[in-house]
Amino acid sequence: MAEEHYLELSENPVQFEHASSVNNVFFDEANKQVFAVRSGGATGVVVKGPDDKSSVAFRMDDKGEVKCIKFSIGNKILAVQRTSKSVDFINFIPDYPHTEFTQECKTKNASVLGFCWTSWNEIVFITDQGIEFYQVFPDKRSLKLLKSQSINVNWYQYCPETAVILLSTTVQGNVLQPFAFRNGTMTKMTKFEIELPVVPKPAKLTLSERDIAMATIYGQLYVMYLKHHSRTANSPGAEVVLYHLPREGACKKSHVLKLNTTGKFALNIVDNLIVVHHQSSQTSLIFDIRLKEPDCAVNTHQPVLPARSIHPYRIPLSGPAAVPTQPPVPCQLYSSSWSVFQPDIIISASEGYLWYLQVRLPPTVHLLQDKGKLMDFLLRRRDCKMVILSVCSQILDGQEKGSLPVVATVFDKLNQVYKEYLEAEQSYTAAMESGPSRGGGAQKRPVRTQAVIDQSDMYTHVLSAFTERKDVSHKFIIAVLMEYIRSLNQNQITVQHYLYELVIKTLVQNNLFYMLHQFLQYHVLSDSKPLACLLLSLESTYPPAHQLSLDMLKRLSTANDEIVEVLLSKQQVLGALRFIRSVGGHDNVSARKFLDAARQTGDQMLFYTVFRSFQQRNQRLRGNPSFNPGEHCEEHVAHFKQLFGEQALMKPSTV
Amino acid sequence: MASGAQDKQYTPSLLSFFIYNPTFGPREGEVRGGFQWRTSLWLLCKTLFWTKFLISNFSFQEEKKILFYHPSEIEKNEKIRNVGLCEAIVQFTRTFCPTKPAKSLHTQKNRQFFFEPEENFWIVMVVRNPMIEKPNKDGKPSTIEYQEEELLDTVYGAVVRQCYSMYKLFNGTFGRAMESGGVELLIQKLEKFFYRYLQTLHLQSCDLLDVFGGISFFPLDKMTYLKIQSFVNRVEESLSLIKYTAFLYNDQLIWSGLEQDDMRILYKYLTTSLFPRHSEPELAGRDSPLRPEVTGNLLHYGRFLTGPANLKDPEAKFRFPKIFVSAEDGYEELHLIVYKAMSAAACFMISANVELTREFCEQLDGLVGPQLTLLASDICEQFTINRRISGPEKEPQFKFIYFNHMNLAEKSTIHMRKTASVCLTSVHPDLMKILGDINCDFARVDEDEEIIVKAMTDYWVVGKKSDQRELYVILNQKNANLIEVNEEVKRLCATQFNNIFFLD
Prior knowledge:
- The structure holds 2 protein chains of 2 kinds.
- In chain A, β25 (273-278) and β26 (283-287) form a beta hairpin.
- The longest helix of chain A has 30 residues, at 404-433.
- In chain A, the strands form 8 sheets. In chain A, strands 1, 2, 30, 31 and 32 form a 5-stranded antiparallel β-sheet that branches. In chain A, strands 15, 16, 17, 18 and 19 form a 5-stranded antiparallel β-sheet that branches.
- Chain A has a domain at 558-654.
- In chain A, α2 packs parallel to α4 (404-433), α5 runs parallel beside α7 (497-509) and α14 (604-622) packs across α15 (634-644).
- Chain A has 15 helices and 32 strands.
- Chain A starts with 6 loop residues before the first strand and ends in an 11-residue tail after the last helix.
- By secondary structure, chain A is α+β, with helices and mostly antiparallel strands.
- Helix content of chain A is 29%, strand content 25%.
- Chain A is elongated, with a radius of gyration of 38 Å.
- By secondary structure, chain B is an alpha+beta fold.
- Chain B has 3 domains: 8-27 and 43-206, 2-Layer Sandwich (Beta-Lactamase); 222-279 and 297-390, Beta-Lactamase, CATH 3.30.450; 398-497, Beta-Lactamase (2-Layer Sandwich), CATH 3.30.450.
- Chain B is 39% helix and 23% strand.
- Chain B contains 11 helices and 19 strands.
- In chain B, a hairpin with a 2-residue loop joins β13 (330-341) and β14 (344-351).
- Chain B starts with 7 loop residues before the first strand and ends in an 8-residue tail after the last helix.
- The chains are: A alpha+beta, B alpha+beta.
- Chain A binds chain B through residues 403-405, 408, 475-476, 478-479, 482-483, 485-486, 489-490, 514-515, 517-518, 521-524, 543-544, 546-548, 550-551, 553-555, 563, 572, 575, 578-579, 582, and chain B through 217, 220, 222-223, 225-227, 229-230, 233-234, 236-238, 254-257, 259-260, 404, 406-407, 409, 448, 467-469, 499-501, 503-504.
- Chain B: Residues 394-492 form the CCZ1/INTU/HPS4 third Longin domain.
- Chain B: Residues 242-367 form the CCZ1/INTU second Longin domain.
C-alpha cells in the first residue's frame, strides 16, 4: 500500500527536560521557546528555542512558584509572573543592571491572568478586570503605563504574528473582544459574539478557552471555534467555525469545517491548512478554506483528504547514553499529555519534546483522485514543486494516466499561477522603470513561490522524459505537447523555443511531416531564428521545410542575412541579389560572398551579371566601379578579366 | 462581329470515356498476338479492308480488353475500334519515347487524353472541342467551326487523373479489385462508380484550379486553431476507434490527420460533392420541410452528413461510405463519418474492419455534437473579429489565384463559391486560358520566373513563380504600362502575401 500518512512530526524536535515535580515547563508562543524551570529557577532555567540562537540557560532566585515566564522579542527582557498581582522583570541586555524589578497591576483587586510581549519592550498585562499596556524601561528598571482598558475578562488568547489579544467577556464567555497592538498603540477592534450551540440556564461560562484558537491563514487572521456536537441540534458531528477578523471592520463568520465526528479535538495550522486532530480515533483531518466545494453550500468545507493518523514517530536516542544497536522507541501519538499550540506546534511536556507539525505532500497525490482538485490543493502548498511535477509525470504515463481533459485541466491550473507571477513580475519591472518618482517604492518585488512551475521546469522534469518514452503512443505525446502549448497560449505566455523543438522532434521521429507543416502554417509554432534553422536542417528529409524556413525568416524581418545565406547556398545568386536589393541592403552587402557563389555555379553569364551589378553599385556609391581593397575581390576581378577580357570591365565614368 | 449574334456557341463536352487493359485481350505469344498493335496501327491508318477482316476475327478477344466504356450504348465494334486506336497511338508514340507515352491526341473535332494510372490500365477521355455554329444563308446547312486550340492539355489531363483518384478513394486501386474478384468485380466497380461520377464532370468549367487540385485553408488565429487541435485530440482519445480526423470550416480545411495526397482528393469530394448536396437544408427556412430534424436535440446542431440521417429512427442504417487511403503497407480501408454542426465539419475515419453500431454513433453524437457546436460559434466569432480588425474588404483592383505546391494551399478571388453543379468564375474564359498557358510555361522549367501578358481586352495578366509557389494576377488597368503593372504586382505581394517569402 502506498504511504498514506500525510502529516508528520518534524524530524529534529526541540528537546527539553520533561516536566516533573521539580521541573516546571512553560511555552511561549511568541518566541516559540520552551522554558524548563527547575526549583523556581534556583537550580537553573533552560530555554530552548527553535534554533540555537534563541536557546539560553541561566539561573534566577527562587522567589516562589513561577506561573508564567516569557522573554521579550529578541530575548532582551525576561518577564516572570509569580503572583496574581505582579510581574517581575530581569534585564538580559548586556551592561544593564541585572537586578529584578517588579510591576504591580494598576487595577485594584484585579488578579493578573497573564501577560504578552508585543515588542522588545512593550508588554500587555491581562487581568480579570481588563488589560494594561506598558512600556518597559530596562535602564531605569521601571514601566510606564501606555494605555489600559477595563473590561471583565474570563480568559484570553494571543496571536503573536498579528499582535492581537482576544478577550473572552460576559458571563457565558462568548462575546470576544479583540485588541490590536502596534508601535506603542493599542486599538480596540470590533467585538463579536460566538453562537453557542446551547444556551445554558442559568447563564454560566460556557465558551472554553480550549475551544478557541487564533491563527493567520492565507495572510488573514481567523478566530477558530471548535463547536462541539450537541445532542439537541441535528448536526451529525462537530464543526470548526471560522470567524474572519479583519484589521478594520466587523468580524464575520466565514467558514464552517465539517468534522463529521464527535469527541476531543485539537487544532493546528500548517502551510495554511487547518489540521484537526481527533484524539479518540487518533487521526487528523485537513481543511483548505480556499478549496471550493462544488456540492456544498458556500464556505462549508469537507475534509480535503480522508482522515489519517500522523506518520509514526520514533524517538531517536541521542546523547552519550545512546547505544547504536538500540532501536528508537516508538512515540505514542495523540497522547493525552500532548499540548497543541498555534500555529503548528505540538508539545509533549511529559517526554520533553517540541515538534513542528508538517504536511507531507506525496501521500496526498494518491488520496485525492480528482486531479484538478489535487492541483488546486498542491499549488497552495509551500514545498509543492517536485510533487506537482511528479503528478504531471504521473498523469502522462503509468497506471494513473489521465485523459486529455484531465491533463488540460492540470496544465491550465499550473499556467494560471505561472501567468499571475509573470504579470506581477512585469508590472513590478514596469513600475521600477518608470522610476521611483511615482512612489514606486510601494511595490514589492513579487515572490516566486514553488507553485510557479515554468516551462523550463515542465520541460526538464516532465516533458522531455515523457517524449522519450517508447511505450506511449506518439499520438498521445503530441496531443499532450499541443495541450501544454494551448494552455500557455491561452494564458498569453510566450512559449519557449525548446518546447517547439520537442514538438518538432517528436513529429519528425514519427514521420509526421504533414502535421508539422500544418502547425507551422497556422503559426502554432511561433517564428524564431533557431526554429527556422531547425527547419532548414530538416530539408533533406522533408523538402518543404526549406520553404517554411524561408517564410519564417522573412516574417522575422531581422534575418535578411540568413535569407541571403540560404539562397546563396542553393545557388540562387540572382534571387539573393534581388532580395537584398528589395530590402535595401544592397549597399552594405559583401560583394565577395555573391561573387564566390556566382563563380561556384560555373555559369559564366551569371558571374558576369553579378559582377557588373556590383560594379554598378560601386559606381553609384563611390563614383568608381572598381572594388575597394577591403572587399577582397581581386581574385574575382582577375577571373572576370580572364573570362571576358579587360575591355569588359566597367570603366570609371568620366564626368 | 455583327453576324456573331446568331452564332451558336458550344462548350467542350465529354464524348467518351473508357478504361481498358491491353493485356486482357489476345496476349503476346498467342497465335495472333504479334498482330496486336500493328492491327491497331492499321486502324490508325484507316486501312479499312484489313480492319474489317481482323475485327471480325478478333472482336471476341478484343472486347475483353475493355473494362468500362461510356457512353455504353455505343456499338461494340466501334468501342473496340476506338480502344484499339488509343492503344495504337500509345504504342506507336512509345517507340519515340519509351518513358513518356503520349498524353493527348489533338484532332480537329476532339481531343483525347490518355492516362495509365496503374500498369497496363489505361483511362481515356475524349473531349469534343468547343465549337461555333454559324448559320448560313440560303438554307445551306450551317458551318461548324471547331476551336481546336481552346482546350488545355494540363487542365483535362488533370481531370482524368482526378477521375482515377476519386475512383481510388472509394474503391482502392484497380489491382485491388482484380485481386479480390477478378475482372468481373473490377468491371462491376468501374460501372457503378463512373456511371454516376461522369455525370458530375462539368468539363466546360474546368480550369487552372483543376490543374492545381489545391486545398483552400481557413484563415484562423493561433488560439482558435489550438482549441480545434485540442478538440480533435480529445475526441480521438475518447473514441479510440477513430484513426484519423479532418476538420473543416466553411468548406475550407483547418486540420487534416490524413496525408496530403489523400486529403487532397477527400477535400475535393467533400467540397464538390458531399457538402453542396447538404447545404440546401441549412439554407432552407426554419419551417421548411427540408430543414433537418432538430427536435429532441436542442443541445447542439450536430448531425451526420454520411451514415444515418436521423439517429432516433429505429430503422436507421449505420452504414458509412468507405474510403481508401495510403498506409505504410499499401492501402487501408476506412469508414468515412462526416459530422457537421453549423459551418464546422469534422470527418472521422475508422478502420473498415470495425462494424459501426448505433451505440457508437450515439456516443459520437453525444460527445462531438455539443463541442463542435461550441467550437463552430467560437470560430465564427473569431473570424468576424479578425475581419473587423483587418478592415472592411475593399473591392480590389485585381483578382488573383495563388497556389503553393508544398502544402497545396490555393486561394482564388476569381472563383465564386463552388456549387454542386458549376464552378463560376468572374473573369472571361479567355483570361482563364491565358492563366492556363502561363502555368504550362512555368511547368516547363524549374527556375523562378515571371510572365506578364497584355490581354486583348485591356487586361494585364501576370504570372509569378517563386520556389514552389505560383501567383496569377489579373489587373484591370487601362493604359497601364509594363512598369506600372510590375509595381502594382509588387504592391499586391507586399500587402496580401507579406508573411511568406516571395522573391521579387
